[in-house]
Amino acid sequence: MTTRQGWQHFATTPPPVPPGSGAPARSNEERLACHSAFITVSTLAIDTLTTSVWTLMVLGRYQEATTRRSGASAVM
Known about the structure:
By secondary structure, the protein is mainly alpha-helical. The protein is 53% helix and 0% strand. It is built from four helices and no strands.
């Protein structure tokens, strides 16, 4: 939404509508598509979470090994 075209697309696209009470169950792909259309409101909790996830991703990028092998994989 940082460009005029992005804003126009957002403003003219109807919001996602949940299925009615008698509708068949949606697939995981349909559920993810519906939830990805929502907007995240920037709050203190979301900002803190975003910073924490970003930090963990950066730290994880430089890790050689993050877990020990289990006994089953060492036998093989």
